[in-house]
Amino acid sequence: MSKKKTKYLFISGGVVSSVGKGIASASIGLLLKQRGYSVTIMKFDPYINIDPGTMNPMQHGEVYVTDDGAETDLDLGHYERFLDVSMSKNNNATAGQVYYEVIQRERSGDYLGKTVQVIPHITDEIKRRMTIFDSQFNIVIIEIGGTAGDIESQPFLEAARQICREKGEKNTLNIHLTYVPYIRSAGEVKTKPTQHSVKILMEFGLRPEILLCRTEQPLEKDVRDKIALFCNVDEQSVIDAVDVQTIYEVPIHYAKRNLDTIILKKLGMPVQSLDLATWTNFVDNIKAPKQTVRIGIVGKYVSHVDSYKSISEALIHAGAINDTLVEILWIQSENITDKNVESTLKGLDGVLVAPGFGDRGIEGKIKSIKYVRENGIPFFGICLGMQCATIEFARNKCGLKDANSTEFKKSKNNVIDIMDEQRTVVDKGGTMRLGTFPCLIDKSSKSFSAYQKEFIAERHRHRYEFNNAFKQVMEKNGLLIAGTSPNNTLVEIIEIPSHPWFVGVQFHPEYKSRAVSAHPLFIGFVGAALKHKNGIGA
Ligand code: GLN
What we know:
With 538 residues, the chain is of the alpha/beta class. It folds into two domains: 7-280, Rossmann fold (3-Layer(aba) Sandwich), CATH 3.40.50; 289-533, Rossmann fold. The strands form five sheets. The chain has a nine-stranded mixed beta sheet with strand order 13-12-14-15-23-22-21-18-19, sandwiched between helices. The chain has a seven-stranded parallel beta sheet with strand order 5-2-6-1-7-10-11, with helices on both faces. Strands 16-17-20 form a three-stranded mixed beta sheet, covered by helices on one side.
């Protein structure tokens, strides 16, 4: 890569959380990339956990895994899906990682008698990480997690201030994403929270030059003028980030408001032409689907939509390519019983059993799999979903009634067992089998028809695996081991050839699905669901 003069774009959030900083960062990244610049995006999370790997998805949403095996914030998934570029462990840092590093240095005596402090030691480590891609990209976008005013995010804002000071005005830019609420009883929008939020940033020495105002309705000119005046920004730099039908429309909306041109001008960069044709085509497909399929996602964390973010996005991408709207029905696995399994799943065009940990809801997942296997409904099992399919097949097709995973219950027939390399692992954080590993696919399989190639590489996050001692009995009863590690030690894909579409994968294909290049297995699954709906067998 040739050396580049890197410009830094900081994105902070204000007023409330959950207004979509991740999508805003990804959308800005896409627009700048489509203007011909090389871009990467980083996320700085102010929490003390080293990574989200040990957190409950109900609290933090999905854990996103990169090629190099980092367990990261789900916003990295948005960055990859929008930019169509792989992120790495260097694209995400937490306060925990920063403090851990500094404390380790202190223990090794590197600070030579100094008192170790937030400024400069913690902030220097944050700055080191924020500038790790220096000279590699034209633009580095840095999303600062949390909301302006949080105690935890202060060192990150201070680090951003120092970088802005050191690199100068033409090389740095601050964008602030706020929320402008509409007060129904008063019949008007309120700008005060935005003014306060900008004030907080100013106290930290950061002057936002562009304000992205999340609102339900477009903001009238007088409201934008008022925000501009009180927050000390140009009028055209107050941009209403209105709610749109799909998150993938956000870049198109920003482009209409000239956000990318404003950014480039402020950074003193030439405004090259914008190529959004493929993206717009993709969004048009999402917005005007020709048909609909109903897919049930059976999982344990279904009440929090962010828990399975990459899966639901992958279904949207695969739907767009099939001109199809994928309607998702979230199904709580704990609630499924022998009595209600039929009424719950009947009429669905496909069922996906989600990844997960621990035994809660396992029997519901197994009952669901039995139903779809016996009734020819397309099935897609991901990681734990594949493991449950293995257990179900062993119990109900191979007569191994006590088949189970060692993760849940020790039995004579642990068809899913702990991986050898995992037997001695004690610490829970970052110790699973993580990241990209290769897989060799059987040419007769549905997976091969989907990928159209024998060698693939997919991302992993697990401790347990298919127990090879049961390979023979499973194969004898009609299971196809459709994919293994190239040395044939680890089962990566199982299928039932006599079923219209029954595929279970040990890896997580959802992490590699991109907006404009949907994942082959998701395309295959949605295609099979369409055939099922239209009464066409596979
Ligand atoms: N709990 C299972 C394992 O550790 C599955 C993990 C997952 O679904 N990501 O192997």
